[in-house]
Amino acid sequence: MTTRALLTDLYELTMMAGYLSQGKAGDTATFDLYYRHNPFGGGYAVAAGLEPAIRAVMDMEFTAGDIEYLRSLRTPAGTALFEESFLGSLMRFRFRGDIRAIEEGTVVFANEPLLQVSGGLSECQILESILLCIVNFQTLIATKAARLWEASRHGTILEFGLRRAQGPDGALSACRAAYIGGAAATSNVLGAATYGLSPKGTHAHSWVQSFPSELEAFRAFARSFPQECVLLVDTYDVLRSGVPNAIVAARELETGGNRLSGIRIDSGDLAFLSQRARKMLDDAGLHYVKILVSNEVDEYVISEIMSQGGKVDIWGVGTNLVTAGGDGGGALGGVYKLVEHNGQPRMKLSGNPEKVTTPGRKKVTRFIDDAGFMEADAVADVSEDLNTGPVVIVDPNNPLRRKRLDSSNRTPLLRDVVRRGVLVYDFPSLEQIRRRRTEQLAQLHETYRRLRNPHGYKVGLTQTLWRQKERMLNREMI
Length: 478
Hints:
By secondary structure, the protein is an alpha/beta fold. The chain is 38% helix and 20% strand.
């Protein structure tokens, strides 16, 4: 039987086998995991996925079933792809290196390490795909949820995406990340059970269609769930039948000492319909009834509805949350690059300046200005002391752009998580991570949180690190 140890790209294994056959089994290395562009054309991202990523690393071991499968692989010539000596080394594999990382829920930016992995070259190499798979996706979804939350002006976001997710694994990962980013609850019952969240839902149009009339359907649902009743009011006509029938059901609930929790609108002009529905409910004395809307909403739709005076209390977001869809959707694009080999800094060159890597082991320090807002992040060589004195950072893509940082409020971002193969970090609860995200966004000025055309937050190299990169560039290009 195979295990998740095989959840890797083949080239990780062929490189490991090559390192062994070429006498590099004792080589050491450091890799940085980072991304080059903020997702969705935005001004930030929210770090997520650290705990499942680290647990995947700590649990990684190759079973007899895994080895038997790898043994069965053949080259086009029919010979075994992997030598027995390599397969034997996999049987003994355990990660024994170091991992430093930025904590989940932290607001992060392009071109700063989210994780730094150090150890044997081979053991660091094999982690590339699984770390990128988990951190890329969960950071992307957490960021999307944060944008939805910001667009709703810190309203209530429900994750409704199970049916549109990229498979069961994607649905569960998205559920976790969405909660970190700002979703208050999920429709995914397994996700709620797994992560200790609140499961929320209403009913489908099929419930209404299965009864002789809409009013009978509403009354039946209210009888079944009198204390948590949300009625879907757009099966036939929101304003002519849906809301009036919901009002009848609400009044009948009141006679039994209960209250209608809310109505849900899933189609049409959501801004207009929510305004009219709110007035109808208020005129009926049902000020407490919440209005939930859904139907392919994203952060831009939410922002538009809010700006048009929509009366929405709760936003059900499915496809555009769990798939990171909508304008500017897609993948995070995180990369995993070698920055040190056998104690010596290494750098990748490219015709595209943004793809030129920054060499060496690093630290990341965040500077907070006197008003309590994030001012800039300094990426430094790990040996540098950034605790006192002014720090000048350099934009590596435009070295003429520099910024002097004098603030005494400085926070190191990379934390020790694994040391010599031992977990040394206490993972916080999802509630703690969620609070961290809230606090972090409050420290990020609104100009960086805008949905469109946000200001670019400054992430720069210290002069020491920039000079090292420049020396290596000049040496490599001679």
